[in-house]
Amino acid sequence: MKSHISIQNLNAFYSDHQALRDITIEIPEKQITAIIGPSGCGKSTFLKCFNRLIDLTDGAKASGKIIVDGIDVLNGSVDITDVRRRMGLLPQKPNPLPMSIYDNIAYGPRLHGIKDKKKLDQIVEKYLKIAGLWDEVKDRLKSPASKLSIGQQQRLCLARGLAVEPEIILCDEPTSALDPVSSQHIEQQLLKLKKYYTIVIVTHNIHQAMRLADYVIHLYLGELVEHGPANEVFENPKEERTRAYINGTFHIDLKIDKELDLKGNVCPYNFVYSKQALHNLEKGKTLKVIVDDPTAVTEVPRGMEADGHEVLSVKQINKTDWEIVVRKKE
Ligand SMILES: Nc1ncnc2c1ncn2[C@@H]1O[C@H](COP(=O)(O)OP(=O)(O)OP(=O)(O)O)[C@@H](O)[C@H]1O
Ligand SMILES: [Mg+2]
């Protein structure tokens, strides 16, 4: 796999809320990479760092490196317009400009100095064809883009983005506002386009990810949980959290008041330390204990229950570690 975007130690904050935590990953060239994970895990933030849209949010900042063709796009001195031209963004809801179909596509190229009518005609036709919209609109290029159906508008936005000749297409849930047939249209175009472009798509829809992705990134609470070739991640995830998300058994995590990492401790030390931590906690608050000792997984919850505390969950979170959540008795 040849890398196109190299992300190194990416952290992102909205004021003091950390939305991305130390993410390091390579995005493969001319493939479709799907970013999956529950709502609020940082998928959109991740994309917004790529084209520096994050700069537009007050109080937001990103640190680390995102290297595309040898240039770190997070570096303060890069030309943001150039960065955004290289990376087209297809948003959730289509946002055609308030002008004709033709002018929507010609807008970017005109901005970049192309004035020749013949040349513009060619560009408009070329990209409407690539986006799979040409046959439906070729006889009404001068009519307002707003008259198109939502699905057609989304393909128009795809064409508009492609007309400035990006290398990378970023899509943030590009089909979530579309009906199934229009969604299928967009998916078909993306599958064709990956021959020429590197595509990164955020999707809530695990089936869409399975249909489209060559590579998968699973984020959870701002952290990179797992990444790898799509067939490996979908068929044989390494992480229990990924398996749960794919199977749809992912549950909202409990509110945790204190966390205790007891890896490397052998039972009964695990038990003693957990007991001490619970002792220092207010009544009704929750403690999460991480252990990597199989005996502790059964003994710690048993002991806690014997003391009258409520064991809320015990689950394996990866090959070697378990997570026990206990609520201190009232
Ligand atoms: N403008 C903002 N100001 C403050 N916090 C924000 C802002 N945008 C996002 N966040 C927070 O950052 C975290 C990540 O948000 P983000 O939108 O990236 O998640 P997401 O995975 O795209 O979620 P969804 O699937 O719901 O679109 C969330 O906790 C969110 O509340
Ligand atoms: Mg989002």
Walk me through this protein's architecture.
The longest helix has 14 residues, at 117-130. A six-stranded mixed sheet has the order 6-7-8-3-9-10, sandwiched between helices. A four-stranded antiparallel sheet has the order 2-1-4-5, with helices on one face. It has a four-stranded mixed sheet with strand order 11-12-14-13, covered by helices on one side. The chain contains twelve helices and 14 strands. It starts with a strand and ends with a strand. It folds into two domains: 3-247, P-loop containing nucleotide triphosphate hydrolases (Rossmann fold, 3-Layer(aba) Sandwich), CATH 3.40.50; 258-327, TusA-like domain (Translation Initiation Factor IF3), CATH 3.30.110. By secondary structure, it is an alpha/beta fold. The protein has helices spanning 43-50, 80-86, 101-111, 117-130, 134-137, 150-162, 180-193, 206-212, 230-235, 240-247, 269-279, 294-306, and strands at residues 3-14, 17-28, 32-36, 60-68, 71-72, 87-90, 168-172, 198-202, 215-220, 223-229, 258-261, 286-291, 310-316, 322-327. α3 packs parallel to α6 (150-162). The protein is elongated, with a radius of gyration of 24 Å. The structure holds adenosine-5'-triphosphate and magnesium ion. Magnesium ion is lined by residues 43-44.
